[in-house]
Amino acid sequence: MRINRNTGLVLEGGGMRGVFTSGVLDAFMKHDLYFHYTVAVSAGACNGMSYISRQPRRARMSNIDMLAQYDYIGLKHLVRQGCIFDPVLLYDRLPNELIPFDWDTYFKHGETFEMVTTNCLTGKAEYLSDNANKQRCLDIVRASSSLPFVSKVTSVDGIPMLDGGIVDSIPVERAMQTGHETNVVILTRNKGYRSEEKDRKTPAFVYKKYPRLRVALSHRVREYNKQLQLVDELEEAGKIACIRPERPMEVGRIEKDVHKLERLYEEGFALGERFCSSYCQ
Fold it and tell me: What is the three-class DSSP state of 127?
C-alpha cells in the first residue's frame, strides 16, 4: 500500500491502551507525517486532538505524567462527579491550565478531523468535527470518550451522546465511505484478538430514556468482532496498513500502573518510527 494525499488515518479507542496510539502519533509528528483525513474514536479522539494541534508528547503527558501526579481514575470520581475519569481535570484543567492546548494550530489545520460519538436517541454513530468553537470541540471529545455505565451522558448540540466505541470502535468503513480507499489504522489490540465477552441484553431500567442505545449496547461485542474481522480482511487485501501492539497486552482499559503505560507508549513510538522508515522514504 502506498501513502498519498487520499490516504486516511483511523484511530481506535481502548481507554488507557490509547497510550500506544499516542506513542505512534508522536513518531508521526517527529517525521512530519500528517494525513488530510483522520477519524478517531474515544481515547483515539483524545490522542488525535494533540496530533492535529501538532503538540508532540502532550498526549503522553496527559495519559501518564498527569495520571501519576493527579490519580484521575477511580471510583471516587465516579461517586463525586459521575465519571470514573476525573472530567474537570481532563476537560478543563488539562487543556486550559496544566498542558495548554494549542487551539490556534488546531483550528488552522487543513485536514478533516472527525470524532465518533454514539447518539443515545438513535443508537447510531455520529461523526462530528469543529474548526471554530473550542467548547464544542471539548464537548465532542468528551462525548466520544464517555464510557457507558461509568460516565455521564454528554450533550453535544443538545443531543445526548456517549462513547463512539459502542457502535463504531474502528471507523475504517467511515473512512472508506468518505472517499479514502486506503487507510492507516492504529489499533490498541494485538493481531488476532477477538473479544470473548458475551453480549447481554441491557435491562430496561438502564438508560431507560434511550431504548435504541440499549439495543446498541446489547450488540456491541458482536459488532466489535465483526470490525476486527473486516480489518484483517482489508489488511490482507492491501487496502489498509495496520499498526498494532506486538508485545502481549498488559494494559487494561482503566489502567493505573504508570510503568505498564510507559512500556506501551514506548512500544507505540518504536513501531511508529518503524512505520515511518518503511513508508515515508
Answer: strand
